[in-house]
Design brief:
Elements lengths: L1 H12 L3 E7 L3 E6 L4 H9 L17 H20 L1
Antiparallel strand pairs: 1-2
Length: 83
């Protein structure tokens, strides 16, 4: 456990680990920043206690940026339907 705490501190200093939360029941949720999937996979593989954990990874996108694209696409679709 101490090795994992030290590893997490290093990840925070490196700017990869942004937030970490304990979930009642023994789980953990973290928010990380990675340039690509390979970096994320290598980071997860390097967790000292990782062999004893199950991981679920979800890519997160900026909601405002995604909504702008969605709105523009819907506007374009609306114009096409008027023709």
């Amino acid at each position: 456990m101490e090795a994992t705490v030290a590893w997490m501190d290093g990840q925070k200093k490196a700017g990869k680990l942004l937030e970490a939360y304990s979930i009642p029941g023994g789980s953990v949720a973290v928010i990380c920043e990675h340039p690509d999937a390979d970096d994320a996979a290598q980071t997860i593989a390097s967790i000292p206690i990782g062999a004893f954990m199950d991981n679920e990874v979800y890519a997160l996108a900026d909601l405002d940026a995604v909504m702008k694209v969605e709105i523009e696409n819907l506007k374009q679709a609306e114009q096409l339907m008027k023709k």
